[in-house]
Amino acid sequence: MKEINSVGIVKSKTFKCSDPIKLSCGKTLDNYDLIYETYGKLNSAKDNAVLVCHALTGNQHVAGKYKKTDKYPGWWDNLVGPGKPLNTNKFFVIGVNNLGGNEGSTGPKSINTKTKKAWGANFPIITVEDWVKTQKALIDFLGIKKLSAVIGGSLGGMQALEWNLQFPNEVSNTVIIAAAPNLTAQNIAFNEVARQSIITDPDFNKGNFYLNKNKPKRGLRIARMLGHITYLSNDVMGSKFGRKIKNKNFLYNFETEFEIESYLNYQGDKFAKEFDANTYIRMTKALDYYDPTNKNKKKLSEVFKKIKSKFLVISFTSDWRFSPSRSKEMVKGLLDNNVEVSYAEITAASGHDAFLMSDVHYHEIIKSYFNKAFKSK
Amino acid sequence: MKNFNQKTRYDFSIIENWTHSNSKVLDLGCGDGGLLNYLKYRKNIKGFGIEKNPENWLLSLKNNIDVIQMDLEAGLAGFETKSFDLVILSRTIQSMRNVEDIIHEMLRVGKEVVITFPNFGYWKNRLQILQGYMPVSKELPFKWYDTPNVHLCTIHDFDSFCRKNKIKVKERLILTDKKSVNFYPNFFGAFALYKLVSK
Q1: Residue A296: what pLDDT?
Q2: Could you say which of A37, A173, B171, B186 has the lowest number of CB atoms within 10 Å?
Q3: How confident is the prediction for chain B on average, in pLDDT?
Q4: Average per-residue pLDDT in chain A?
């Protein structure tokens, strides 16, 4: 594959934060690590920084490769790079693995310095609010007073929104893609099925499995398969797989028959090998808990009063997990507060996954918005 | 699609005269954002646009306009009552299906409303019909088979619509070739601009 406009070979760095953080759950972490990557150059005014917030299973590796032979580049490589929609010739882009992650940031599989053992089940549940606090600590560490922009899709969009609620003066532009101000019951339901599949896996052992030979792969696998079903639209699944079968004729047994089964099994296996079950169930909890309306006590219009940044909100027509109507709720709250907001509802077939794809119109929107943000800096 | 060459948009300056400085303006079907940009520049307004067409939406964004992609036919549910000083519907009403609904929605959301449309009663249109053809003109550039227009009206039609719906006409200007027409405007006027408020 020819690599154009790539940020090239990248390296992760670790930010060791020794300031304790009081978490939403009430517990305190005395210190923690965040693994992060940066692309492009921070200018002398330090006003060209863009923070990329990752979704459920994302990480700090947004763009580029660690070594030439890597099979895949970072998860948003189609968007981030020199001359790409989020142009690293202009912007200093930061990707960070959230607290509780499994890529090197302090998380369930890290060693608890007090017990000298892996945290496992004892690792606290981290919320979107906590993540934003720790991201702010990283931004401070990098000497950045105000982000030129914060951008995120799905759960990442929730973090981008939360930045505006906790640190309204520290962000100039916010890009929220395929997200929602909080989850619907249906969304929480999917998360619960995913969690139950992990928690009830005999190898999960209540979260303390790191020293065991068997890891809770079955649970993770099923959780991921379920996730993949919901990230796609019925139409795209139909056009991609339809009723295509692997063999010429039916086998009349429980081997993989249909290509969709094969796809889900492949995705499930791949994920179960790479991802930490404790991280996964915690990430889904962060999604479930996030609710700036505080159980509907406050309307978004009230909550958004403090917002000062400009906004770009994007949804995709076939995204039924984070549907356009949820984005419109945010847009309404922003409009009610005279926030400068643009909203695009992109016609796309791929469902929730569309936010990671490189649709021409979608990328042109992001590119235009960031051009505007760069000029008005 | 509209023609957005600013030189030909003589109606911009009239809408400008009807717009208060520093006001909050919503332009429905804002196209490339040309009108909002003009009003931003001339009247320092805070402008938002609504545009359904993806290409036009993108042009608006590139023109530095805050633009919301939605279908006007669904109403203005995302907008609070009286949250805008002025809501504009320029050269669009004739192509809308729910004309009554959108005008009521505009009057709900805006303190004042501007609506502009080509006058179907203009003598050149009438002449073409007398000759046996559907009118095609500068203001109505479409052939019968490719027109987006479904609700063409005359100035008389629009006046009686306002009377029936208890809408007060605050300003009315009828134009032909950029000049104001006062003599039999429904016959000699090609283009109509109205400023409306609820009674």
Answers
A1: 85
A2: B171
A3: 94
A4: 96
Query: Could you tell me if A200 and A224 lie in one domain?
Result: yes
| Chain A from 329 to 368: CB within 8 A of any B CB | 331-332, 335-336, 338, 340-347, 361, 364-365, 368
Q: Could you give the number of structural domains in chain B?
A: 1
- Nearest Cα to A155, choosing from A289, A301, A296? A289
Q: Which of B55, B63, B69 to probe by mutation at the A interface, max A CB count within 10 Å?
A: B69
Query: Does residue B1 belong to any structural domain of this protein?
Result: no
Min distance B67 CA to chain A CA atoms (Å): 5
* A153 and A54 in a common domain: yes
Which pLDDT tens digit goes with each residue over A282-326?
999 999 999 999 988 999 999 999 999 999 999 999 999 999 999
- Residue A72: inside a domain: yes
Alpha-carbon torsion A44, A46, A48, A51, what sign? positive
Q: Which of A12, A154, A197, A315 is labelled catalytic?
A: A154
Over residues A133-187, the pLDDT tens digits come to 999 999 999 999 999 999 999 999 999 999 999 999 999 999 999 999 999 999 9
What does the pLDDT average to over B164-184? 96
Torsional sign, CA A139, A143, A145, A151 = negative
The CATH number for B94's domain is 3.40.50.150
Which of A255, A285, A315 is the endpoint of a domain?
Answer: A285
- The reply to whether A298 falls in a domain is yes
What is the distance between the alpha carbons of residues B67 and B71, in angstroms, rounded to a whole number? 12
With beta carbons under 8 A apart, name residues in chain A contacting B85: none
- Which tokens in the block code for residue A143? 């000497």
The tokens for A302 are: 């009230």
* Residue A300 and residue A280 share a domain: no
Contact A343 B67 (CB under 8 A): yes
Tell me, yes or no, whether A5 lies in a domain: no
